[in-house]
Amino acid sequence: MTQFRGDTLPAAPLIMAASSLNPGFFTRPADLVARELIGCSLLFHGVGGVIVETEAYDEQDPASHSARGPTARNRSMFGAPGHAYLYRSYGLHWCFNIVCGVRPGAAVLVRALQPVFEIAAMRQRRGDGRDAKLCAGPGRLCAALGLDGAFDGYDLSQPPFALLPSTGSQHVLTGPRIGISRAVDVPWRFGLAGSPCLSRPFGRSGRLPQVSASP
DNA sequence: GTATCGATGATCT
DNA sequence: GATCATCGATACC
Questions:
Q1: Closest nucleotide to residue A56 (Cα to C1')?
Q2: Helical residues (DSSP H) of chain A, grouped into ranges
Q3: If both were cysteines, with which of A30, A82, A131, A167 could A106 make a disulfide (CB 3.0 to 4.6 Å apart)?
Q4: How do residues A165-188 score in pLDDT, each as one tens digit?
Q5: Is A185 part of a structural domain of the chain?
Q6: What CATH code is carried by the domain that includes residue A87?
Q7: For A14-43, how does the pLDDT look when each residue is reduced to its tens digit (9 = 90+)?
Q8: Domain presence at residue A11
């Protein structure tokens, strides 16, 4: 049994009924969706928590996998909004995206969760470490939830997935995306202010988001 | 606390 | 052949 080291996670949100995000939620600009996913909850087979960090990518974005059109890997990005796009990173890790956007080829990378549901299952998959870091990063998140490429293209409104609305307004910061070499100044990383579950802190450049206008 | 580096393999030029 | 939407270990401050 993994030792609990005394790190204190924020209070768990009160999830009311089994409500789900409206399908129209996803058919909007990726940066707006990424901003509003902060505070929503993601579950896979009942394991998961509150989304605290996201990044937006779209078809006009040189940093996006979709920038040069559909390929075998990014096929799901050009499919239905509200579905999963899962890809392998550095030959080692899986990364989980939510397809969205007003045109094909956009998605939101879910980078971190605040663990809430079935934390013991996440500890078992990820081994020792602070609970706040169980899902602090896209590769860690997929490892903790047991997500992999077998679920690429799945409808996130159906089991084994669940995507639940936020229970209130959130204080969201934004800044440059992590680990990219193109469009490095586009501030399309979003995070819950003050969360100990972020993959990395938002620096001095952390700002309130300037979300794009409607198309 | 930050900096650097190796793992590891699909994808794309 | 180069490039990765990463992570964990290690070294050092």
A1: C5
A2: 30-37, 119-126, 138-145
A3: A30
A4: 998 898 999 999 999 999 999 999
A5: yes
A6: 3.10.300.10
A7: 655 557 889 899 999 999 999 999 999 999
A8: no
Cβ–Cβ contacts within 10 Å for residue A156, how many?
A: 21
Strands, DSSP E only, in A12-46?
A: 41-44
Residue-number span of the structural domain to which A94 is assigned: 25-192
Which pair of tokens denotes residue A106? Answer: 């956009």
Q: Between A83 and A23, name the one with better pLDDT.
A: A83
In a domain, A8, yes or no: no
With respect to residue A173, please indicate whether it lies within any of the assigned structural domains: yes
Residues 86-115 of A with CB under 7 A from strand B: 88-92
Amino acid A26 CA to nucleotide C6 C1' distance, rounded Å: 26
Q: Give me the percent of chain A exceeding a pLDDT of 90.
A: 80
Q: Quote the number of domains for chain A.
A: 1
